[in-house]
Design a protein that fits this description.
Elements: H1 2-19, E1 31-35, E2 41-44, E3 51-53, E4 58-61, E5 64-69, E6 73-78, E7 81-86, E8 91-95, H2 103-109, E9 115-116, E10 123-124, E11 130-131, E12 137-138
Antiparallel strand pairs: 1-2, 2-3, 3-4, 5-6, 5-9, 6-7, 7-8, 10-11, 11-12
Length: about 140
């Protein structure tokens, strides 16, 4: 009985050591997604889902619509346009024009590999503007 109890305690201690990863910028329950070795870039779970650089406390994008991740980069489509975060260099590039990115980045942006941040329901207004379910006016309906 005593050996069994000791074995259970040992297994529990191993799980605690393996399962508890420490980040420099700990993601909390208000974090929808985080990227980088230290969770430096985080998308908040609070609408309109801003993307923040936790080191500089800078909001990179005021509202993220979709995101995709591969080994080296994170691709964001949001209110500020297109954003590519290079996880190896810990830097990002942002533009409203897709043509400012290289061909491989454009291929990812045009792919269907993105995760939706939330369900967007668009209502067409008579003046060719759209309003999303958060009350934001947008000129052109995004191609989801």
């Amino acid at each position: 009985m005593r050996k069994c109890f000791g074995f259970i305690v040992l297994i529990g201690a191993i799980f605690l050591l393996i399962g508890c990863k420490e980040y420099k910028y700990n993601p909390g329950r208000d974090t929808l997604a985080y990227f980088g070795n230290e969770a430096k870039y985080q998308i908040w779970r609070i609408e309109p889902y801003p993307l923040e650089d936790m080191e500089s406390k800078e909001i990179i994008d005021d509202g993220v619509y979709r995101y995709a991740k591969n080994e080296d980069n994170v691709y964001i489509i949001g209110m500020e346009g297109y954003t590519v975060i290079n996880l190896n260099k810990n830097e990002y590039k942002q533009s409203k024009e897709l043509e400012t990115f290289n061909e491989s980045d454009i291929e990812v942006f045009e792919s269907n590999k993105f995760k939706e941040v939330s369900d967007k329901e668009y209502i067409k207004l008579p003046i060719e503007k759209f309003i999303d379910n958060r009350g934001y006016y947008i000129e052109n309906k995004p191609n989801y």
